[in-house]
Amino acid sequence: MAAGNVVMVLTVAGMMGFQFLTALYLQQVLGLDALMTGFAFVPTPLSNAVVTLWLGPRLITRFGARPVLAAGLVITALGLALPARVPVDGEYFADVFPALLLAGIGMGGAVPALVGVAMSVGTPEHTGVASGLLNTVQQLGSAIGTAALATLAATQTGALLASGTGPKEAAAGGFRFAYLGSTALLVAAVIAGLLLMPARPVAARSPESTDSQRTP
């Protein structure tokens, strides 16, 4: 359970920070308005839904949750790494769309597998506590990731402005730097998942078996 929550907080921190940065990049650099920015994110939930509802369960059944989790996190990390090269005069379909698509596919496989592994440990009476903790960690990761990556972007932008770089180029440079941070969080999640999580989920023990082991 602890390992699952560590991987979850790193994953959500990287992904939610990435989404926040991308919304700002689309508006401040590419000049999209709020409505078009919302439509620009459509590939992520669509691809996420396809993988989560159809492909992911089949892969987990065939290969197990841990390989699917690792593959999903790697795909997500690749998606988050692509915008680290975004130019000032970028184009949505060339510079943003592939990243959003890969992120949706990767998270569609990683999150269900991660939740399944994290919820498969402990006794049945602890299921509610495990679920509540996992949801709390998701909110925590979202807040930390958004704050940390936005700070990286703002700091780098300020440094570039101080060096004489133009406002738009400085903003793009700040986003590129912060995208590297979001990628680093996903890489850390991959490493944590491989090192900390068991190859096979630990079977949940019934309360009766637990009580019998405690009886001298």
The CATH superfamily is known as MFS general substrate transporter like domains
What is the strand content? Answer: under 5%
Number of domains: 1
| Oligomerization state | single chain
- The residue fraction in helices comes out at over 70%
Shape: elongated
Structural class: mainly alpha
- Using the coordinates shown, work out and report the CATH topology: Growth Hormone, Chain: A
The end-to-end span amounts to 27 Å
Looking at this protein, list some descriptive labels:
216 residues; mainly alpha; Growth Hormone, Chain: A; elongated; disordered C terminus
Can you characterise this structure?
By secondary structure, the protein is mostly helical. The protein has 8 helices and no strands. It has one domain (2-200): Growth Hormone, Chain: A (Up-down Bundle). Helix 1 (2-28) packs antiparallel against helix 5, helix 1 runs antiparallel to helix 7 and helix 3 packs across helix 5 (92-118). The chain is elongated.
In short:
With 216 residues, the protein is mainly alpha-helical. It has helices at residues 2-28, 34-40, 43-63, 65-81, 92-118, 127-162, 167-196, 207-214.
